[in-house]
Amino acid sequence: MDFAIERKKALQIETFILSKITERGQTLLAKFLGLNESSVSRLKATTGKQKYSVMQLTSLILAFAGMDTPEFDLPGSIGRLEKRLEKMEELLAKKKPGGNRASSQLALEL
After folding, report:
1. What are the backbone angles phi and psi of residue 98, rounded to the nearest 5°?
2. Sign of the Cα pseudo-torsion (76, 80, 81, 82, in order)
3. Tally of CB atoms within 10 A around 13
4. Is the pTM of this model over 0.90?
5. Using CA atoms, how far apart are residues 30 and 32, in angstroms rounded to an integer?
6. What is the DSSP letter of 46?
7. Integer Cα distance of 99 and 41 in angstroms
8. Which of its termini does the chain have fewer beta carbons within 10 Å around, N or C?
9. Under DSSP, is residue 100 helix (H, G, I), strand (E, B) or coil?
10. How is 14-67 classified by DSSP, letter by letter?
11. Angstrom distance (rounded) from CA 60 to CA 42
């Protein structure tokens, strides 16, 4: 068995799980598991003499068991990025002198 391939799969699984936790919220996961938020945070970190975090161990076990690496939700990711860009544009528009003038107009005034 090629352990390097399994570890790569485990890393992809862990990345997928962590991105989903970030997307849906650590607080919501804590409520779902019946834990407080700091306990969920400790699942993601290695402590003391541990070599792996609980999240890393879980990912390694799933990879060893033959779980396929999950495909990332590309359309969902693009949608979230679009929303973030819109928010950034709104914030930038508020910071511009004179409101929502085009950048070409600003360049001419300088």
Report:
1. 85, 15
2. positive
3. 22
4. no
5. 5
6. -
7. 41
8. C
9. coil
10. HHHHHHHHHHH-HHHHHHHHT--HHHHHHHTS--TT-SS-HHHHHHHHHHHTTP
11. 17
